[in-house]
Model the fold of this input.
Amino acid sequence: MRFNSLKTFAAVAVIAVAAISGQASAQVDNQTINVTLATDSGIDVLKTADIDFGSWFVVVRGGETPTLTLTPGGGVTAVAAGVTTSTLTELTAGTGPGQITVEVPAATVMTMTRSGTTPFTDTGIDLTAVTYDTATETGNIDADSDTGAVTILAGSTPENVDLGAELTFTGTPDDANSPHTASFVLTLAY
Done:
């Protein structure tokens, strides 16, 4: 019996040594783990009104340069500094200043940039200034590439940006092209 036990032990030892000396191979399987994130970080800009001066009787004489100014708050003034023979008379009130609303998910300070200005095609009318008001800022973006700060006070709440403009007359506009139009692009980023 003892011989049998030794024989069995020797067989087990040989099997164990053979298993250890051979290379063990493990099965490999790769898994791709996807990572997702949903965000609400977009800028939502909505134009609610264009800048509308209304209808005016305009006669420019003697090389004078009268101006019409529409403030972001809505007041229209005809400035006649040094103007003695030209006439600017309101015939029909316009709808007033322009306005956009800006909404982002969190309170922040954004940069508003003016670009893409299409001037009046009519001889004698120039868009010489654009002004804006927010709840916390007042500024000018008079030319393309001009920038201004727009503070968003609360996330997910539309912030108003009111827009005014100044028109300078260097000649009497032609009524055949009425209404006279100009435009510009506003880009908001943060």
In short: The first strand starts at residue 44 and ends at 49. Helices lie at 2-21. The chain has a mean pLDDT of 87. The two ends are 89 Å apart (CA to CA).
